[in-house]
Design a protein that fits this description.
This protein is α+β, with helices and mostly antiparallel strands. It has a domain of about 240 residues: 2-Layer Sandwich (Nucleotidyltransferase, domain 5), CATH 3.30.420.40. It contains 15 helices and 23 strands. Strands 17-18-16-15-21-22-23 form a seven-stranded mixed beta sheet, with helices on both faces. Strands 3-2-1-5-14-13 form a six-stranded mixed beta sheet, sandwiched between helices. It is globular. The protein starts with a strand and ends in a 7-residue tail after the last helix. The relative contact order is 0.12.
Length: about 500
């Protein structure tokens, strides 16, 4: 009997289990949302128990739905929201504090102070490829240890464990037998040296993090342990953070290939091969994947608001009932409209890294319509993508095309505008579940269903290619010329 693979995709708002066959064809999936908690301004938390229950429930339900036994499965692959930080008691397995989500900004003041210390950000960037920001795990972990009664003493005594969501799931799935992560997730903590490939002692001392609470860092394809929670032994064979997993799912295995994922936010990741690029344009150097001890690096830029801007139009402004309706509404726009929307609801991401910017609308006239504002909002995501592409090109990248995925790219108009403003081909794959597919690929490699990552390249097929259209390009380029003015000078700071 052919072996199947289960991919666990643990995201920011929901957990999914996806069933693939031995050739990585998607068969079915189950999904379950969980609660978001906002206890203070800028704070975002998850309940680790809710995350764990959602993961267990969707996996168990999917297996039972298809009468799949562990013996029918080759392996489990895990992909996860990155940077989100959990600390738990090693004896009980219970978290000592809610998971602090990657979106959380509670350590902004701490990060502001660190940036003012001469040479600190440069040193951290040199070691980790990251910039000082609350986005990453280090300051979140330090906050928990400093603010939960008794946590620091327990950590120093080796009674606590830290992990990003993948590590927490491995601990739970293996019933406390394994405390492991992979190199992609470790590279997002701001504690991992991506050149020496180990937890950095100097950074651990700097953030006052006891080394004994950290997980073992492994290749992305590795024996992460077995789980017996679904009626038999099942191996966990692959792990990668969600954006790296999407890169793998898009088969961007060659240096110079790039993917851009348009979900709640947007994440553009460029494969730079065995060469780590130290960005001079405030982009992130990161680990794309590590296989057989060999590291492939990536250059990454993040847009904080992408699909969530469409949700804003739908839920707050009531422009339409479904995000799918936006494409039809846009067809009624004034093509000569010069309206600009800057959706900086939570600040601006790369390459600006301005947490104090806020959203703005420019160029309104009496005849500005819902269609014009909807089009301008989608264009703003394309403009921010062009900002990222430009920053990467200034760092030496050379783009011939861009592979895209995520819910937004189902909108043909948006995908076409991307091609127009970027002036490169935009490729939408036949299989759009690229994040889960990447996790399935990794698990398949561990199970021996495919010999290596290169053998997967032929499995990628484009469903549609969007090429630049001259007429639309000219109009967009004119709007893009004033785009920098809008976010550089006219957005309002949150601090006096």
């Amino acid at each position: 009997m052919s072996k199947k693979v289960i991919a666990i995709d643990q995201g920011t708002t929901s957990s999914r289990a996806i069933l693939f066959d031995e050739k990585n064809n998607l068969l079915d999936f189950e999904q379950k949302e969980f609660n978001q908690y906002f206890p203070n301004d800028g704070w975002v938390e998850h309940d680790p128990e809710e995350i764990w229950k959602s993961v267990f429930d969707v996996t168990d339900k999917l297996l039972k739905k298809h009468s799949v036994k562990p013996s029918d499965l080759a392996a489990i692959g895990i992909t996860n929201q990155r940077e989100t930080t959990v600390v738990w008691d090693k004896k009980s397995g219970k978290a000592i504090y809610p998971a602090i989500v990657w979106q959380d900004r509670r350590t902004s003041d701490l990060c502001d102070g660190l940036r003012k210390e001469a040479g600190t950000e440069q040193k951290i960037q040199q070691k980790t490829g990251l910039l000082i920001d609350p986005y990453f795990s280090a300051t979140k972990l330090a906050w928990i240890l400093d603010n939960v009664t008794g946590a620091r003493k327990k950590a120093e005594n080796g009674e606590l464990a830290f992990g990003t969501i993948d590590s927490f799931l491995v601990w739970r799935l293996t019933q406390g037998k394994n405390h492991k992560t992979d190199a992609t997730n470790a590279s997002r903590t701001m504690l991992f040296n991506i050149d020496s490939h180990c937890w950095d002692d100097e950074l651990l001392e700097f953030f006052k993090i006891p080394k004994k609470i950290l997980p073992e860092v492994c290749d992305s394809v590795h024996d992460f342990g077995d789980t017996s929670l679904f009626g038999g032994d099942l191996k966990i064979g692959g792990i990668a953070g969600d954006q790296q997993s999407a890169l793998i799912g898009q088969c961007c295995f060659n240096s110079g290939q790039a993917k851009s994922t348009y979900g709640t936010g947007c994440f553009l990741l460029l494969n730079t091969g065995d060469k780590r690029i130290s960005s001079e344009n405030r982009l992130l150097s990161t680990i794309a994947y590590r296989l057989d001890g060999k590291t492939t690096y990536g250059l990454e830029g993040s847009i904080f608001v992408a699909g969530s801007a469409i949700q804003w139009l739908r839920d707050e402004l009531n422009f339409f009932e479904s995000a799918k309706d936006s494409e039809e509404i846009i067809s009624h726009r004034n093509v000569k409209s010069k309206v600009l929307v800057v959706p900086a609801f939570t600040g601006l991401g790369a390459p600006h890294w301005d947490p104090d910017s806020r959203g703005s609308i420019f160029g309104l006239t009496r005849d500005t319509s819902i269609a014009d504002l909807t089009a301008a909002t989608l264009e703003s995501i394309a403009f921010q993508t062009k900002d990222l592409i430009g920053a990467m090109e200034n760092d030496g990248a050379n783009f011939s095309d861009l592979r895209v995925d995520g819910g937004m790219v189902a909108n043909n108009w948006f995908s076409q505008q991307l091609a127009n403003i970027l002036n490169i081909d935009v490729l939408r794959p036949r299989v759009i579940e690229t994040t889960a597919l990447g996790a399935s690929y990794l698990a398949s490699m561990k199970a021996g269903l495919c010999p290596n990552i290169e053998s997967l390249s032929s499995s990628w097929v484009s469903e549609k290619t969007f090429c630049s259209e001259n007429k639309e390009t000219k109009i967009l380029q004119e709007k893009y010329q004033i785009w920098p003015v809008s976010y550089t000078h006219l957005t309002l700071p949150t601090k006096a």
